[in-house]
Amino acid sequence: MYPLRCLLAHPVSEIRQTLRDHCQRVAWLRVVGEAARANEALELAQNMAYNALFLAPGPMGECTGLELARLLKTMPLPPALLFVATTQDQALEAFELGALDYFLWPASTERLDQCLEKIRRIPPPPHAVQNTTAGNNAPRPAHKRETLRLDLGDDDEEHFVEALKATWSEPLATSAQRPDKLPVQSAGKTLLIPYVHIIFIAAEDDYCFVHTSSGKYLNASRLKNLEERLAQHRFFRIHRKYLVNLDMVTEVASMPGANLMLRTAGTPRIELPVSRRRIQELKSLLGL
Q1: DSSP 159-175
Q2: Pick from 254, 251, 264: which is nearest to 213 by CA?
Q3: Quick one: which of 128, 160, 158 has its CA closest to 146?
Q4: Is residue 144 situated within a structural domain?
Q5: Pair (184, 275) in one structural domain
Q6: 120, 141, 161 — which closes off a domain?
Q7: Is the distance from CB of 74 to CB of 97 less than 8 angstroms?
Q8: pLDDT value of position 178
Q9: pLDDT in tens, the chain (288 residues)
Q10: What's the pLDDT score for residue 2?
Q11: For the domain that residue 264 is a member of, what is the CATH number?
Q12: Pairing between strand 4-9 and 52-55?
């Protein structure tokens, strides 16, 4: 079974941790991201296709979880919604929005197991099959480029996913064995961003945001793993949260207290702090 992706969005960190621990008990469900605020959850959901989302119905920063749910329902393939509440007051509104589940916190182990079982039964997204009913002799425009999608069996899909993960995550001996591109998620699609287009990468919990001149994209790797992968391509860890492409740095500014700030190419220019323990190594790399 292909691992389902789950997002945890709740303002209480202890609740998110309990949900994460429970989700990690099953092999078919993978927690890929957490958010304390609705805008953070929305940004994640817009950049990665999630199968399920745990969220609070009440206030989550700028808006409520119910308002977030309304925004998510406008997406082509919205995640299934599981509301974690303290009262039943908003249950009706949640189910009117198509909630998969609505349960009270604190929840027992048995109740959380019921939630996971509901997630496990989520049907897979429909695979669109083009031109299957028109017949073999139906005219096809010469200029239209067609895409044929072949479904994989469960076993074949698991082997394919594992092979793909190995290709993207394991260090290889030479750059010729792996393209100089980084896989990222955007609107439910996987894009390959050339390393030379990356300005910097910012860590966010167990995932990262890859920043380019055209926008930022989600990558489900830890910053440490990306640091190891990109070190030979002139990427440098300037801070516990930032990995920067040195070829995109246009200015090194001295700051009070013997600190440094890097300014990058692009519009607008980005200023990134350099941690004190990395200053000497950075100066050596830049010949300063």
Answers
A1: HHHHHHHHHHHS--S-G
A2: 264
A3: 128
A4: no
A5: yes
A6: 120
A7: no
A8: 61
A9: 568 999 999 999 999 999 999 999 999 999 988 899 998 899 888 888 899 999 999 999 888 999 999 999 988 889 999 999 998 889 888 998 999 999 999 999 999 999 999 999 988 765 433 333 334 444 444 444 443 444 444 454 455 455 445 544 444 444 445 678 998 887 767 889 999 999 999 988 778 889 888 888 888 888 999 999 998 998 999 888 999 998 888 888 877 765 777 878 766 678 888 888 888 888 888 777
A10: 66
A11: 2.40.50.1020
A12: parallel
126 within some domain? no
In-domain check, residue 27: yes
Indicate the number of domains in the chain: 2
Q: What is the CATH number of the domain that holds 56?
A: 3.40.50.2300
Q: Answer yes or no: do 212 and 109 share one domain.
A: no
Question: Would residue 106 count as lying in a domain?
Answer: yes
Retrieve residue 138's tokens: 């139906």
The token pair that represents 134 in the structure block = 């028109």
Rounded to 5 degrees, what angle do the CA atoms 133, 137, 143 make? Answer: 90
**260 and 187 fall within a common domain:** yes
Q: Which among 212, 199, 197, 213 is positioned nearest to 246, based on CA atoms?
A: 199
**Residue 115 lies in domain:** 4-120
Beta-bridged to residue 217, according to DSSP, are 210
- Quick one: 113 and 192 in the same domain? no
Q: How far apart are CA 249 and CA 262, in angstroms?
A: 7
Per-residue b/e over 100-112, b at no fewer than 16 CB within 10 Å?
A: bbbbebebeeeeb
pLDDT at 226: 94
| In contact, 48 and 32? CB cutoff 8 Å | yes
Tell me, yes or no, whether 40 and 106 share the same domain: yes
